[in-house]
Amino acid sequence: MRDNRDTALRGEKVTLVPYTAAHVPRYHEWMRSEELQRLTASEALSLEQEYEMQRSWRDDADKCTFIMLDAERWPEQARGDEDCMVGDVNLFLTDTEDPTSAEIEIMIAEPSYRGRGFGKEATLMMMSYGVTDLGITKFEAKIGQENKASICMFKKLHFKEVSVNSVFQEVTLRLDVSDQERQWLLDQTKHVKRKSYMEVKLAAGGPET
What parts of the sequence cross the membrane (predicted)? Predict the structure, then answer.
């Protein structure tokens, strides 16, 4: 999605930046992990296929993705994005009958960042972006039954379990964004600062992407 191509969102723990070609080698390395393939229901891709997928994420109007960076390490220490990558968070806007509905996914690829609140903050930031910038009013998350930590996190964010698919061993959770939920979400993310991704990269001495 081109809507977020120059958007950087900085929270307390996490900075969200658009998925660019510079992130692909590290992302490709992550997705060679059998554990991550299982948790994300993904298959291993070649590096060239990964670049094609990145271009799809950039150009397709029904997909929105941000790469999660460690906010403390980026960009003040002049580190490249790839040295600070934690995971990614995605929205799929694939319901043609309801453009205000989105499926949300999150992946903490770096094991050392799990269980430390990075996933929670990134999910809240993405949901807030979806509500304010994309007009989303309904979120859905489909999570493998074995991923208890992710299921628990989404329930803490007010999602309700609506179905279990025993064939795919998958739990579906949903959140309807009422006025009350919208205000709660905005309150949870009022600390988030929005910046131009390109300006931040240039100021840090990084290359344009």
Answer: none
Cα–Cα distance, 168 to 100 (Å, whole number)? 26
Q: Confirm whether 208 is domain-assigned.
A: no
Domain count, the chain: 1
- Report the 3 state secondary structure along the chain: CHHHCCEEEECCCEEEEECCHHHHHHHHHHCCCHHHHHHHCCCCCCHHHHHHHHHHHHHCCCEEEEEEEECCCCCCCCCCHHHCEEEEEEEECCCCCCCCEEEEEEEECCHHHCCCCHHHHHHHHHHHHHHHHCCCCEEEEEEECCCHHHHHHHHHCCCEEEEEECCCCEEEEEEECCHHHHHHHHHHCCCCEEEEHHHHHHHCCCCCC
Residues 39-92 have pLDDT tens digits of: 777 888 899 999 999 999 899 999 999 999 999 988 655 567 888 999 999 999
**pLDDT band at residue 183 under the 50/70/90 scheme:** very high
Q: Specify whether the CB–CB gap between 26 and 70 falls below 8 A.
A: no
pLDDT in tens, 61-74: 999 999 999 999 88
Question: In this structure, is residue 2 part of a structural domain?
Answer: no
Identify the domain containing residue 116 by its residue range.
7-193
| 161 within domain boundaries | yes
CATH number where 118 lies: 3.40.630.30
- 199 is a domain residue: no
